[in-house]
Amino acid sequence: MEKGILQEKQYCMRITFFVFFLLMTGCLLTGCQTRHAIVRTPVPVKATDSMWNADNIAAFENRLEALRQRYHIPGLSAGIVNGGQLVWKKGFGYADVEGKLAPDENTVYQIASVTKTFGAIILMQQVEAGRIQLDDPIARYSINLGARWGSDERIRIKHLLTHTAMGNSFNAFKPGYTFRYNGGWYNQLGKAIEKASGHSFGELLLQNIVRPLGLARTVPSTDDSASFRLTGYSRDSFMRLVARPYDWQYKKLVPMKFSYGFGPAAGLESSVADLAVYARAIDEKRFLDSATWKKVFTPFVTVKGKTIQYGLGWFIKDYKGVRVMWHTGWWTGYSALFVRISQKDLTFIILANSQDLSRPFYHVMKVLPMFNPFRNNLNKDLFASAFAKAFMEHFMLL
């Protein structure tokens, strides 16, 4: 019995030695290098890169047109910024279906929640000036969120800015624990901005961003008469520049009538050409200090240490070692997508005169009574959008 056990131990030792020998031999042949995923430093895209060849551009344009038709979008305006210039731009379909008017880079659209990126800049300017602290309780600015939340002292400005104010039943609805997108609550930041600065959000937006950049086709909602009046434009004249809104209903495009509000969360109207200038200004780190921009583009970390997909007014995620920042916009008759990849020196802008450009992020076909379409909300990554995926595959070469 003991002899059998001894033989078994000797056999096991031989096997172990043989495996060790194979491993050491492999180490000698390969230099014993530990295998790690190769991390490549992102290289900015140049005008001479192969992705700008005519075949790739044509394939990309054909893909966008196919998507426009698949999603029944009447019109699109799209552009790509590289090297601080709008290097590619194109309109698809119609800005006005009945009038057969084609859109281009100067066509104006409601950009909906892409407005939040502007709102974050204005708010952070107040933070830099020492007028607002991100840890200020919302009650300091007479913000009341209603229901169980009210003006709870635990809810801070940073929670509204990062969509972490709401909480859920698993954490007793305490702020700072979970990401739950809420545009209405984000819009309450306008009260803090106005109380701290003595100026409305619209005044500061025009004074600090729109006019310095010469954004002639970027305005507060034409339906917000007080805010639009700040521009000095004739509303009737400006409306001729705006794409007409539609929705796909009962297998046909239906013109939409809706009153669009305005605030830090939504309601800005703009064009691809103007947003290209805005994108360049962000790349140049205008408006804010470098340290503040770093905070803006850093994902928020919850009380439990979980990193969410949102920073200060932007969605943020790394794809194959490259940081991508974006915001969607989705409103009655309009949708938008604004994608920045600063490490690659690329920005993709696409605007539509129906909701269906951004609908996949919200996954809502029809808003039902008492149903919040953002409850589960924008937890999807950028590839939820077939338009964003097309851009990434053609120009990021993923």
Distance between the termini: 62 Å
Sheet of most strands: 6 strands, antiparallel
CATH class of the domain at 50-114 and 123-130 and 210-396: Alpha Beta
What oligomeric state is this? Answer: single chain
Helix share, percent: 25-40%
User: What do the pLDDT scores average to?
Assistant: 89
Number of E-state strands:
11
What order do the strands of the largest sheet run in, or round the barrel if closed? 2-1-11-10-9-8
Number of contiguous helices: 13
InterPro entries: AmpC-like (IPR050491), Beta-lactam-related (IPR001466), Beta-lactam/transpept-like (IPR012338)
Transmembrane segments: 12-31
Organism: Chitinophaga flava
Domain Beta-lactamase-related: 60-356
Structure report:
The chain is α+β, with helices and mostly antiparallel strands and about 400 residues long. It has a domain at about 50-115 and about 125-130 and about 210-395: Beta-lactamase (3-Layer(aba) Sandwich). It is built from 13 helices and 11 strands. It has helices spanning about 1-30, 55-70, 115-130, 155-160, 185, 190-195, 200-215, 225-230, 235-240, 270-285, 290-295, 360, 385-395, and strands at about 75-80, 85-95, 110, 220, 245-250, 250-255, 270, 315-320, 320-330, 335-340, 345-350. Strands 2-1-11-10-9-8 form a 6-stranded antiparallel β-sheet, sandwiched between helices. A 3-stranded antiparallel β-sheet has the order 3-7-4. It has a two-stranded antiparallel ribbon with strand order 5-6. A hairpin with a 4-residue loop joins strand 10 (about 335-340) and strand 11 (about 345-350). Helix 2 (about 55-70) runs antiparallel to helix 13 (about 385-395) and helix 3 runs parallel beside helix 6 (about 190-195). The chain starts with a helix and ends with a helix. Residues about 1-5, about 25-35 and about 365-370 have low confidence and may be disordered. InterPro entries: AmpC-like, Beta-lactam-related, Beta-lactam/transpept-like. Keywords: Membrane, Transmembrane, Transmembrane helix. It holds the Pfam family Beta-lactamase.
